[in-house]
Amino acid sequence: MRWMPGSLLSLFSHDLAIDLGTANTLIFRKDLGVVVREPSIVAVNQKTGRVEAVGGPARAMLGRTPGNIILVRPMMDGVIADFEYAEKMLASFIRRAHRRSVGVRPRIVIGVPSEITPVEKRAVRDSAINAKAAEVYLVEQSMMAAIGAGLPIAEPTGSMVVDIGGGTTDVAVISMAGIVCSKVSRVAGNRMDEAVSQYIKRRYNLLVGERTAEEIKIKIGSAFPFEKEQTVEVKGRDLVEGVPKSITISDEELREALAEPIASIIETVRDVLEQTPPELAADISDRGIVLTGGGALLSGLDRRLQEETGLAVTIADDPLTSVVMGTGKVVVNLGLLRRVSLD
User: Fold this and answer.
1) What angle do CA 19, 160, 154 make, to 5 degrees?
2) In the chain, N or C: fewer CB atoms in 10 Å?
3) DSSP labels for 208-266?
4) Average pLDDT over residues 47-61
5) DSSP E strand stretches across 106-202
6) Domain residues for 72?
7) C-alpha–C-alpha distance, residues 187 and 252, integer Å
């Protein structure tokens, strides 16, 4: 895309930064900060084809919809899986960000996974254009996470960020505003939720929904033992009797359930460390690793990663907003946008 000071249309709109995530979409408006923080989900009426709800109201319907209402997740593993509903979801969120439905033609910067393909890039860009964006620029989520976490990405020193979202874990080593080495894993928050529900199903013959699995993970999920045992009551449907049933599970059981996805994330970090040039590896040894994304909030993950790598591990001040805040800083700095844009 040719660089311009901004189209005539975008001059009359407020530019937006978007973290278009598998689990959640966040939008930053340069004059107001984060103005949208919604689940990436759409409720669709199969009979009429009409979108009934988007974001939070749609997520509230999980497991509670009649047969004619389906819930669509337009994003899968960090990229667009359903073009039509991704476009409608984006358009709805952009209207919310601008608080009006007409005359909304912003310039948009969107964070995408580091290993996104040309076809996937085009899908993201086309969805944003069809959602009435005047100009669209794509940037790498790991770079945005590093900027949002306050890392000195422009300096000739190595910084390592591990961004654990809903659909992907994006690990990167950054120096001089460029990604030196990186790897994207499709194992992240959603895979953890699946692991929890599968464990409960296998061990207790109890079927639980994805919302319940996520709530259990948030309450007592961990990568490192607690000082005292934690338990939680779980309600679901007995697969043998076919009736509602409740059980109590412990944090130790949850660690067993989460062992495989956590091990996969750690392996991804190790793979990137093995690719890192010696000089930058020395910098990372001094500065450590920074965790961002919702997965960074899993209890004890920082401690577990520190134990496994021997490096200091810190969690960003607000890991849930690191990507969108980093993207927001790029929106207001055209010089930096030129350096980090994938266009």
Assistant:
1) 80
2) N
3) --HHHHHHHHHHH-BSS--SS--EEEEEEEETTT-SEEEEEEEHHHHHHHHHHHHHHHH
4) 92
5) 107-112, 135-140, 159-164, 169-175, 178-185
6) 10-144+323-340
7) 21
pTM over 0.85: yes
Q: Are 315 and 291 in contact (CB under 8 A)?
A: yes
* Chain centre to alpha carbon of residue 82: 17
Which pair of tokens denotes residue 108? 């948009």
Q: How many domains is the chain partitioned into structurally?
A: 3
Q: How many CB atoms lie within 10 A of CB 97?
A: 23
3-state per-residue secondary structure call for 37-65: EEECCEEEECCCCCEEEECHHHHCCCCCC
Q: Do 200 and 208 touch, CB atoms closer than 8 A?
A: yes
For residue 164, give the CATH number of its domain: 3.30.420.40
Q: Given 217, 233, 257, which residue is the final one in a domain? A: 257
CATH number at residue 196: 3.90.640.10
Say how far apart CA 77 and CA 107 lie, in whole Å. 25
Whether the CA torsion 257, 260, 265, 266 is positive or negative: it is: positive
Both structure tokens of 49: 């084809």
159 and 302 co-located in one domain: yes
Same domain? For 210 and 232 the reply is yes
Q: 270: Cβ–Cβ under 8 A, 6 or more apart, which residues?
A: 308, 309
Report the candidate in 173, 171, 165, 182 with the shortest Cα–Cα distance to residue 20.
165
Alpha carbons 135 and 176: distance in angstroms, whole number: 26
Distance between CA atoms of residues 330 and 237, nearest Å: 47
CA quadruple 59, 63, 66, 70: dihedral sign: positive
Write the CB contacts of 285 (distance below 8 Å, at least 6 apart in sequence): 311
**H or E element: which one contains 301?**
helix 301-309
List pLDDT tens digits, range 177-200. 999 999 999 999 999 999 999 999
> Tokens in use for 314?
């810190």
The residue among 309, 271, 274, 275 whose CA lies nearest residue 289 is 309
Reduced to 3 DSSP states, what percent helix, strand and coil does the chain have, rounded to the nearest 5? Answer: 40, 25, 30
CA angle 200, 315, 283 (to 5 degrees): 125
pLDDT digits (tens, 9 = 90+) for 249-275: 999 999 999 999 999 999 999 999 999
